[in-house]
Amino acid sequence: MAWGHRLTPPPRSASDAGAASRRWPQSAADSGGRARPASTAAAETADLTGFKPVQVEKAREAIEQTAVVPLSRPGLYAAVSSDGVTTYLVDAIEGSCSCKAAANGRRCYHLASALILDASAITRRAA
Q1: Domain ranges, ordered by start, for the chain
Q2: CA distance 14 to 17
Q3: pTM, 2 dp
Q4: Residue-wise over 28-63: b if at least 16 C-beta within 10 A, else e?
């Protein structure tokens, strides 16, 4: 079975359309006391060396939109591509992704998303 047929992204409503472009403040104090999303806090603990800032931002957005989800095996994630149709297999432990960018030796935001989620899961297990 092709990965493109296993998962579909959640439907986007008109009120959701602007959410992807939101920038989150650096600290809770910057936002008038509101807590930051978990993906922002986890991104600070994940090793994102080698990723461009735009990739990290896109990774956070993918997490907030639940476009990257954990699978049954620890460190393994399914990521829906930006076209909303294709789904990639991402292994945060091995640092691999089945997308075209990764196949060409580049880092992708799918992997950055998985690393952020994996760091968040490790933090929760340790607590």
Answers
A1: 50-127
A2: 5
A3: 0.66
A4: eeeeeeeebeebbebbeebebeebeeebbbbbbbbb
Amino acid 7 reads L
Structure tokens given for 72: 């049954």
Between CA 67 and CA 74, with CA 71 as vertex, the angle to 5 degrees is 120
Tell me if 38 sits within 8 A of 120, measured CB to CB: yes
What does the pLDDT look like over 10-49, one tens digit per residue? Answer: 444 444 444 433 333 333 333 444 444 554 555 567 899 9
The secondary structure of 96-117 as a DSSP string is: EE-SHHHHTT---HHHHHHHHH
Cα 103 from Cα 27, distance rounded (Å): 36
What is the β-pairing status of strands 87-91 and 96-97?
Answer: antiparallel
Instruction: Evaluate whether 39 touches 120 at the Cβ level (below 8 Å).
Output: yes
